């Protein structure tokens, strides 16, 4: 096929037009580059003229700036030192030795090998409950068990087919029916009276000025807060087991400190409370339901998310008392122990003051604060006296010198 001459001419004309446009754009770009270079040269020339016309102010400003630099450094240095002082104090506080932990006594506040009864109790409610168990419930259980066993033996021996071929047709006996109705009722009343009394004492509100400790259960740790002692708080994790996989990262192994108690029960930070006074425990949870339970203190209370449960704790004897979370709360439920360290009030106050921001609840400030406060006003006149002395001496010298001649 032949090519159309008209189409060929149009194509050639379009190509020449595009080449012309490209050449024009290239020339425009070259002109823009030359214009920018010329403007930069003009700016540099003008700047050099300005510097040449005013050399003295610039040279005079340089020594002033150099002289102001040491002054600025001198003014910044005290501020930097003041800002660094709290950090240094905090680092020194961190280096200070922690409050010594109490070493637990074997068999006190902890389970023992071969134990089949309640742990020894160290709270008034625990002793009362232990008395109910040993002196009320167990005797009744033993007597009923022996009585039923005797009845079974009598029935087997006296009323079998060989010993009693003709069974009795007696269907009612008023005396027996009254006895077996009233005796169980009396037994239940005898059990109910101390039991209800124990329940009432367990949930008796704490006194208004009782120390408050807030306990929060989480998976799988406890958090203890002391709102009456400055509001400080800390977490409590179970210590890792020696020779076993790590349970809590960053926590030491049990047995690495002489004050450690049994494995699976010892923690890195114990809940510390005073001895011999009621303590208000407010218990809640952050995720799922937990239960704060210490058997040797007769204490158990559920920790429910979104709710605060409250109960009073009183410990009669200094020591370390162990417990565990008693509500299935996840995969590491068995690794959520509780350790309560009970100290005399004086030792507890020292422990509180060793905590960051700790203050003694319901007590006056430490004895050192009063002398310091009284010494501060006395120091002000003493500091003012030396500064006033030169003024007085200068006035005396001026009055002693002869007046100038007229």
What does this structure look like?
The protein is α+β, with helices and mostly antiparallel strands and 406 residues long. Among the domains are: 25-83, no CATH class; 124-163 and 178-202; 211-353, Immunoglobulin-like (Sandwich), CATH 2.60.40.420. Helices cover 48% and strands 14% of the residues. The protein is built from 6 helices and 10 strands. A 5-stranded mixed sheet has the order 3-2-1-5-8, with no helix packed on it. Helix 3 (124-158) packs antiparallel against helix 4 (174-202). The termini are far apart. Residues 54-97 and 368-406 have low confidence and may be disordered.
The residue-averaged pLDDT reads: 78
- Stretches where pLDDT falls below 50 for ≥5 residues? 54-97, 368-406
- Assembly form of the protein: single chain
Biggest pleated sheet? 5 strands, mixed
Tell how many strands the DSSP assignment holds.
Answer: 10
* The CATH topology of the domain at 211-353: Immunoglobulin-like
**Anisotropy-based shape:** elongated
Q: What's the number of helices? A: 6
What share of the residues does DSSP label as strand, in percent? 5-15%
Radius of gyration: 45 Å
Give the structural class: alpha+beta
